Amino acid sequence: MSPRVTTTEDPRLVFWNRRATPPFTALRAFAAVGEFGGIRKAAAVLELDHAAVSRHLRSLEAWAGVPLVERGVNGGKLTAEGAKFHARITTALNEIAAASAELVNGPNDRALHLSCIPGLASNWLLARLADFRQRHPEIQLVLRPSDTAPDFTRREMDGDIRYVIDAAPDKPPAGEIETVQLARPPVLAVGSPLLLASLGDPGAAADLLKAPLLHEENARQWTAWFEANGVTPDHELAGHRLWHAHLAVDAARRGEGLALANAFLVGEDFKAGRLVDVSARVGAQPIVMGAYVFSARRDRWRTPALLAFRRWLVKEAAEEAARW
What we know:
The protein is an alpha/beta fold. It is 43% helix and 13% strand. The strands form 2 sheets. Strands 2-1-3-8-4 form a 5-stranded mixed sheet. A 3-stranded antiparallel sheet has the order 6-5-7.
């Protein structure tokens, strides 16, 4: 028989009556089913098997004495009573999660631990941190350049900035996360003025096949760039493989070859005359290969410090993208 609590009972005391509140694990499973739209999706999020979530739901329904989830064709859709109950408990569970995060992180914790791909960190983000510090002097940033995404389940970082390639997306950071796309900048061929002059001022994309090319891990990006511009290389593209975008850009500054980069990485070099937009010189079509994405732990997503940084970062990225 389900419990019945009289309305005259002080609601502050009801919680302590074990018969008046269901098991927390059952509540958590039910909340996930309502939030993610089904038992199987909830099981994946909770990292439980389908049968375990179903058991928790049956337990909660037995406690309540009313059906909360529709079975069969609808496969986990909430009943009318279930939807009402879900709306109430979601607010309470979110408050518990927020209080727990504050307990773990500290009520006055204004430090943000962020990781970022090295090229963007050194060539774009670093020059803008003074502006963020001026706007938010109360927030301390701890920035770690890294080629690998953090494991948010281990609380390695609060947030992460990464370049996600469309053709071969990286495995997303582990853990419950929120993400926002910052920009999808076109990829450009770039080189030093001296190197460009030594190439005889090329006038077409095909002319760049004769130039020394700089690669990251392999020649796939350059191959894709040529093919997008109507050029099919008839030989394997040679050139140094430097593994990191910022190293390829630095080598291009030194006249070692042509690199593929975007304006986030080389915008200041264009302004200073250290690099030339070779794509524009040869009339190449813009090609987009991926996006910059900001990810953060879900429990930190709306905290004041991370919210301030996220809004600032989105604004800065949008302004940069608009310039090019």
